[in-house]
Amino acid sequence: MFLGDKKLLPPKQLQKVINTVCELLRQKTKESDEQEETKTTTHDQLTYQALLLLLKANPSHPLPGCIFDSLDELLLYPHQWVRQAAAQLLGHFLALDTTTVTVKSSLSQARMEGYLESSLTQLQSSNILPGHASQLTKNLVWFTFTSLETGDSISCDRIVSRVLKHAAVESSQDNKCTVKRDIVFKWIGATCAKVDESVIKPYLPQLLVTLQRELKNDEVPESIKVLATEVVNFLRDKYDKNVIADALVAAEKSVAEKKRKRKREAALLAISDVTRTAKRKVKVNLAKREKRKAKYLKLKSKQYASY
Q1: Exposed/middle/buried for 281, CB within 10 Å: 0-12, 13-18, 19+?
Q2: pTM here?
């Protein structure tokens, strides 16, 4: 309420308030215990309101260095509202001019690695709010773009593999939920829009494998298919046709090689552990039976509905 009124709260006094809030956030974050994501406590509300104050004050007022120390823990806070506000605050820091003294002194390489790891860990949550998903996508794009531009292949490989893994897990375990794949596909499109063909070329096969998997799956929600189609069309328009064709061939070879590897491992397992293989076959057959039963009931209901 007082942020925009210099008469009610002069800049010097406001800076003292901000410093106090940051120090309290640092102390309270250390004292916070594990709790359910959906359960809101007074401590959660105070932490969330404090982060909102910092979001409104930044960048018109410089933030003290202590907030950078606790931001790692706030990004992994148990409550989803606090994680969203912390991701938005991180986005403000990343959007600042990196030549400023404040950012140079506060955002060291080790600290940036911590922020990257926390952002990747945020993707594991099953509760990601729409606003949080949008900000998380922007933060991941920034980290990926910076890694590609600086030639940090280790960080870039880690980002690509971790992000794409979350999309694959969601596709196989919870196909109806599309939050993580929505983040991943937008991240692919935004990252490719910012970098040149030569920079992204080594990662194109991995990206196309993720997109093609959703396009070939008939059980995928229509919104995800539309988004995947848009991203693939964008890549074809932006990059050379031969580069995309080579990437698609490499993607198909990668998928085929993974299938052969899984079959080889299954064959070896059948020889080395007969009991486990038998239990797995029973489980697979029961799953097939349930799937056929569900398909039969669905067709039967449609047949009766036509009368």
Answers
A1: exposed
A2: 0.73
